[in-house]
Amino acid sequence: MKKIEAIIRTFKLEDIKSSLSESGVEGMTITEVRGFGRQKGHTEMYRGNEYAIDFVPKVKVEVVVPEDKLRQVIDTIMERAQTGQMGDGKIFVTTLDEVIRIRTGETGQAAV
User: Fold this and answer.
1) 24 Cβ contact list (under 8 Å, min separation 6)
2) What is the spatial distance between Cα 39 and Cα 56, in angstroms, rounded to a whole number?
3) Predicted confidence (pLDDT) per residue in 15-45, tens digit
4) How far apart are CA 96 and CA 64, in angstroms?
5) Using CA atoms, how far apart are residues 70 and 4, in angstroms rounded to an integer?
6) End-to-end CA separation in angstroms for the chain
7) Of 7, 66, 72, 96, which has the maximum CB count within 10 A?
């Protein structure tokens, strides 16, 4: 099994969530995060004063999928999250050694 972590723009979350649900993803975890990459934050004006925003608000979507669904889920996230502008985000894929459902003790794919 693989864990996909996608850091995306906040306004893209609903579209990604519904697209992943339609493609058979049964669960996901969403976390509001802040950070910066190459864009290094930005400046904004508030009441005539300019101030720097070093960390840009983003959303982290975490999904666990079997290996045969990995490419489909990545492609869905890419398609829905991409605006073509700097700051669209990143996708990280890691291998999971084990997954255990706490309530039942089920392991592996049955636990997802």
Assistant:
1) 69
2) 9
3) 999 999 998 898 999 999 998 777 666 666 7
4) 9
5) 8
6) 10
7) 7
